Amino acid sequence: MTTDASVTAARRPGEQALTALGLGAPALDPADASAHAFPGGGRWRTEIPSCEGPEALAVVLKESSRLDVPIHRISQGSGVWMLTDAEITEMVDATNERDIELCLFTGPRGTWDIGGSVRSDSRGAGLRARGHDAVAGCVEDAVRATELGVTCLLVADEGVLWTLHRARQAGIIPAGTTLKVSALVGPVNPASYAVFEHLGADSVNVPSDLTLDHLTEIRRVSGAPMDMYIEAPDDLGGYIRMYEVAELIRRGAPIYLKFGLSKAPGIYPWGTHLRDVTLDTARERVRRGRLALDLLARHGADGDMAPLGSRSPGVLNRFPVEGATG
Prior knowledge:
8-stranded parallel β-barrel, alpha/beta, 326 residues, 10 helices
């Protein structure tokens, strides 16, 4: 694991010029740094989100090769049910060839349902699965996707998360399946973050408006990998944290740097009627990744990336599962 001294050695944005002008910032506090890392080494991984089908995936892979953007994980937002078996298999084969983790979203969720509360001013139950049938749809998606070779599932409901964790403990889905909590329900305090870890999360999206101190607070109670949009889509706030990337790593490791895109049309649920914007935005997300990586390099903070192909979340804390066979 990286020591605090090496983590704080990076140059901060504008540091030399501001110090020369008498405007230098206080020294970083080593106590703020995360004590955690990914198993096998490294403090950060990369993720390209909103890759909605085989054609968008091909664009992402081509652009990542052209711009030399390393990718650990590629995720999709429309859902397993929006893809045919052939499309899922094509995506699995393409990501396996590059040793990239593929993560697909599970089942029905509140915004694509008949429930009216999510459209009220209070947003009601949000993106959660409404009723038994919605949970069943998520489980159906999980079983189908893993049978086709998908190794990571994205969830937006605590009950679905716990159900799928129990399913992998029971051998209903492969034990090595990783479960990722969506940014749509991401926790905003250390207590709730720890609850998601105990419910079975291997990776937890947090909203991009959390402060640096919030990340430090989370890391004092949980070492579960964190996902964070460096640039968030507009429906998640449109926040841009580009110049904070090095400090996000220092405070939030182990962390997935997600390269989203603001000022872009929504593409969920995806279909061929949205083909052009889907491919264009997929390409631009990779370029945003290149910009963030270049910034890290300029500041001497591009070390400590986890090895490509790594996907294990490490040993995490779980609630006990009664009657589990695995």
